[in-house]
């Protein structure tokens, strides 16, 4: 895979720097795991585990959460190995260890595969096959379905591919119970419908980067105005889905209150993003301030909404 002549659909050379691996720092091996994204992914997985109506031994719970972290990191490293050509031409990602030449592409791949295999095997040993299989499936989905296939081929890439990042609540619940039930499926759906507004808000102001790299993200292909409408539409769907656990009495009033406040905030920010298309082509004249705000709020939204689940269960057992 390491030849400079190996071209992908983006038309860019696969190897950004064939002389890679000169002097990696330990920090590079952490960066390969996408640690900041990992924190939120792990939070949703851990809450999936703690929301389950069974007692899990603290050591087993800790190992299961570690496995979700290792899987997310391993998948992230494989993603950075595969995407090294497009990462090299995007300002946001050019300094990553592989495109910057500090870690050899093959080493990043080996590292990612090793962590992925260890995470699934350990999950199986520590918990059960349902948790291990759903963890393996989420790695497969992120690496093969999203990174290798959809990301470079369709503007719907993150809608379908976003499912990968939505699996952890199911994995966590399965680690505790060995089963997949309605509440974790609703939590999956919440992350699934949260992903488009989360990412498209960012892509509105990182759009030039994606265009340069030949990645068919929605604003590149369909323009900013269409993307603004899609952000609002998905935020409204997210509102319905996030309220469902309370409406179905799986969770109680504290969760309902948190979801209602967060949904109202997200709808307001998505509305402001829609109103920010002052130029004729739907681009912003404000430096995309509303989109930046909506992206930042998306992170707060998911963290607070998920934190409300165990709090609600503790204060209002029985929903
Ligand atoms: C296909 C789905 C997704 C895509 C394409 C996506 C894309 C991105 C991008 C491009 C960034 C900016 C990173 C940067 O500034 O370098 C970002 C940030 C972030 N994403 Fe996502 N994301 C997705 C799903 C998720 C999911 C499922 C989670 C967690 C549950 C998540 C959590 C985060 C967090 C915590 C950040 C902030 C990281 C930071 O502070 O640097 N994302 N996302
Ligand atoms: C449990 C498990 C295995 C989860 C893995 C899924 C995961 C890490 C989801 C987060 C999604 C994410 C970071 C997408 C960005 O990829 P990108 O390649 O579009 O972003 P980039 O341009 O920043 O690399």
UniProtKB/TrEMBL annotation:
CDD domains: PT_UbiA_Cox10. It is an enzyme of class 2 (transferase). Its EC number is 2.5.1.141. It is found in: Cell membrane. Pfam families: UbiA (PF01040). InterPro entries: Protohaem_IX_farnesylTrfase (IPR006369), UbiA_prenyltransferase (IPR000537), UbiA_prenylTrfase_CS (IPR030470), UbiA_sf (IPR044878). Pathway: Porphyrin-containing compound metabolism; heme O biosynthesis; heme O from protoheme: step 1/1. Belongs to the UbiA prenyltransferase family. Protoheme IX farnesyltransferase subfamily. PANTHER family: 4-HYDROXYBENZOATE SOLANESYLTRANSFERASE, PROTOHEME IX FARNESYLTRANSFERASE, MITOCHONDRIAL. Converts heme B (protoheme IX) to heme O by substitution of the vinyl group on carbon 2 of heme B porphyrin ring with a hydroxyethyl farnesyl side group. This is Protoheme IX farnesyltransferase.
């Amino acid at each position: 895979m390491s030849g400079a002549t190996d071209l992908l659909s983006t038309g860019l050379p696969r190897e950004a720097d064939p002389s890679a691996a000169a002097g990696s720092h330990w920090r590079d091996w952490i960066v390969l795991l996408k640690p900041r994204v990992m924190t939120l992914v792990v939070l949703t997985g851990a809450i999936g585990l703690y929301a389950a109506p069974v007692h899990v031994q603290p050591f087993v719970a800790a190992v299961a959460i570690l496995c979700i972290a290792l899987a997310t990191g391993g998948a992230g490293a494989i993603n950075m190995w595969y995407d090294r050509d497009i990462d090299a031409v995007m300002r946001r990602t050019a300094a990553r260890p592989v495109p910057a030449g500090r870690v050899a592409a093959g080493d990043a791949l080996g590292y990612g595969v090793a962590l992925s295999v260890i995470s699934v095997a350990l999950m199986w040993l520590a918990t059960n096959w349902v948790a291990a299989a759903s963890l393996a499936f989420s790695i497969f989905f992120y690496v093969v379905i999203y990174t290798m296939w959809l990301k470079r081929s369709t503007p719907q890439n993150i809608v379908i591919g976003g499912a990968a990042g939505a699996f952890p609540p199911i994995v966590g619940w399965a680690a505790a119970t060995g089963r997949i039930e309605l509440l974790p499926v609703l939590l999956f759906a919440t992350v699934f419908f949260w992903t488009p507004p989360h990412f498209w808000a960012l892509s509105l102001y990182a759009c030039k980067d994606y265009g340069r790299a030949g990645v068919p993200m929605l604003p590149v292909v369909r323009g900013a105005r269409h993307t603004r409408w899609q952000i609002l539409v998905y935020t409204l769907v997210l509102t319905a889905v996030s309220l469902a656990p309370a409406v179905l009495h799986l969770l109680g009033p504290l969760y309902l209150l948190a979801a209602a406040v967060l949904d109202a905030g997200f709808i307001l920010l998505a509305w402001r993003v829609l109103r920010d298309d002052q130029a004729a082509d739907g681009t912003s004249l404000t430096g995309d301030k509303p989109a930046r705000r909506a992206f930042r709020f998306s992170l707060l939204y998911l963290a607070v909404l998920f934190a409300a689940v165990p709090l609600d269960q503790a204060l209002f057992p029985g929903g």
